[in-house]
Amino acid sequence: MPNCQKCGQQWSWSQTLKVNFKLDGMECPNCGEKQYVTSKSKKKLNRISYLPAMLIILLLFDLSLQITIGFIIVGCILMIGFYPFLIELTSEDEGAF
Ligand SMILES: [Zn+2]
């Protein structure tokens, strides 16, 4: 999990997940300094967002629709679970990549 670049406080999993969806950064719960996701970690996150989409390939195999949808849901859950581990914080907004 990432640390605040200002005070060094480690963010919780849910805080880290939240900052990912806030494009204009999020205030550190400890010191109030705005923190942003680094563009480097945004790129990493972008790459793993393709994983659930790739599971659609399973439709090519003769699996039932329920199993395929199940795999896609599990893929999404795993992806969201891993998201905060890939995030690094910065005090400066690096903008869109
Ligand atoms: Zn802080």
Would you mind describing this structure in some detail?
By secondary structure, the protein is mainly α. It has one domain. It contains 4 helices and 3 strands; from the N terminus they run H-E-E-H-H-H-E. The protein has a 3-stranded antiparallel sheet. A hairpin with a 6-residue loop joins strand 1 and strand 2 (34-37). It starts with 12 loop residues before the first helix and ends in a 7-residue tail after the last strand. Bound molecules: zinc ion. Zinc ion is lined by residues 4, 6-7, 9, 28, 30-31, 33. InterPro entries: CxxC_20_CxxC (IPR026369).
Task: Present the secondary structure layout.
Blueprint: H1 13-21, E1 26-27, E2 34-37, H2 39-48, H3 50-54, H4 65-86, E3 89-90
Antiparallel strand pairs: 1-2, 2-3
This protein binds zinc ion.
Zinc ion (ZN) binds next to loops.
Transmembrane segments: 50-83
Keywords: Membrane, Transmembrane, Transmembrane helix
InterPro entries: CxxC_20_CxxC
Give the helices and strands as they follow along the chain.
HEEHHHE
Estimated helix fraction: 40-55%
- The fraction of residues in strands falls at 5-15%
Number of separate structural domains: 1
Give the oligomeric state. Answer: single chain
Strand order of the largest sheet: 1-2-3
Radius of gyration: 16 Å
Q: Give a count of the beta strands, DSSP E runs of length 2 or more.
A: 3
> What about the largest sheet?
3 strands, antiparallel
* Category from helices, strands and their pairing: mainly alpha
Mean pLDDT: 87
